[in-house]
Amino acid sequence: MTDEVQLLEQLKSETHKNEAFKALLKLYKERLYWHIRNIVKSHDDADDVLQNTFIKIFKNIHNFKGDSKLFSWMYRIATNEAITFINNRAKQLQVSNDDVHQLAINNLASDVYFEGDAIQLKLQQAIATLPEKQQLVFNMKYFENIKYSDMSDILGTSEGALKASYHLAVKKIESYLTKN
């Protein structure tokens, strides 16, 4: 029995659920944090979204059917939570999602948790110019090295479309970086 299957059984068991959830947190907290952080940019916002993500996972683990990998299911939840966060922030500020991304990028330089240099800040600015789907695909491939097959499970898009999105994203980023 694989570790994931065993962990899933424990998560669905009332007697072992809390203990198993702690193990799940330990296994995936950092990876999901960075996935979310790549979307929302801010450390504090990423922490909030991560907390909401794990609450959803905890409450809905019994609904996990095993049609995909557990990590893919959790990444889908994290991605949806991050996008929902951005949508809500846009509504709250009465601006577009693109404006929310740009605001987050503008605040990156003053974020004490941002450890990047000027080049990394420029890359983040370039990524912010991409459509949301291309941003997701680029971040997942470039920063997290997620396989297209896993990305397909997470985003519900074909591998071919994901490869095309990544290719387009790279071209747009290269163009942005050479012009700026």
UniProtKB/TrEMBL annotation:
Q: Which SUPFAM superfamilies match?
A: Sigma2 domain of RNA polymerase sigma factors, Sigma3 and sigma4 domains of RNA polymerase sigma factors
Q: Work out whether the entry's keyword set contains Transcription.
A: yes
Domain (RNA polymerase sigma factor 70 region 4 type): residue spans on this chain? 121-173
Every RNA polymerase sigma-70 region domain range: 25-90
Keywords from the named record: Sigma factor, Transcription, Transcription regulation
Citing just one GO molecular function, the answer is: DNA binding
Is Transcription a UniProt keyword of this protein?
A: yes
A Gene Ontology BP annotation from the UniProt entry = DNA-templated transcription initiation
Q: Which family does it belong to?
A: Belongs to the sigma-70 factor family. ECF subfamily.
Q: Which NCBIfam families match?
A: sigma70-ECF (TIGR02937)
- UniProt protein name: RNA polymerase sigma-70 factor, ECF subfamily
> Where does this protein come from, organism-wise?
Flaviramulus basaltis
